[in-house]
Amino acid sequence: MDVLMVEQPLLSTLNQLLSAPDEMEKQLNAPARCYVRDTRAMASTPADVKEYTSSYVFVLDMPGLKSGEINVQIEEGNILSISGERKREEQQQQHKEKEAEVKYLRMERRVGKLMRKFNLPKNANVDAISAEYRDGVLTVTVQKLPPPEPKKPKTIEINVA
Q1: pLDDT tens figures, 99-143
Q2: H/E element holding 21?
């Protein structure tokens, strides 16, 4: 019995020492806060992607934003990045209503960052992109490059020796 009493604290201490590297690895390899925020923003921003004969069209719901608050960019040559941030209008509303305090009874409208990234295909013309924002819906049109002309067969003359 004395052997078991001594072994139990020893085993538990040994077990804690062996699990310490696992705990440290979890802490060191935890995703950054901005990565988690961007991932949530991408997951909660709905988008439709359409392909026409001459273009690709991306349609995103971005309610409550002004056109100047939306960023449409091309990153790394072929990644279409669309982002924006919707902020709460608390202080503006308080001044308009001339009340000292506002108590929300229900908050269902989404606030925070909106973001989506799309890998563009090789035939997308990144120099011919247009964006239109109307009634909370952003429409980004990316024109396609014209298909390459088929090469004509080259005739080679045969010299008689």
Answers
A1: 567 777 887 777 778 888 999 999 999 999 999 999 989 999 999
A2: helix 2-28
Cα–Cα distance between 37 and 79 in angstroms, integer? 19
Q: Which among 4, 151, 145 has a CA at the least distance from the CA of 78?
A: 145
Eight-class DSSP state of 105: S
Q: Do residues 45 and 39 touch, judged by C-beta distance below 8 A?
A: no
Q: In what order do the strands lie in the sheet with 124-134?
A: 47-51, 55-61, 137-144, 124-134
Q: Supply 90's token pair.
A: 């608390």
Angle subtended at Cα 21 by Cα 19 and Cα 25, rounded to the nearest 5 degrees: 120
State the Cα–Cα distance between residues 72 and 53, nearest whole angstrom. 23
Which residues sit opposite 56 in a β-bridge? Answer: 51, 142
Give one DSSP letter per residue of 49-91, joined into a string: EEE-SSEEEEEEE-TT--GGGEEEEEETTTEEEEEEEE---HH
Cβ atoms of residues 72 and 80 within 8 Å:
yes
Amino acid making up residue 141: T
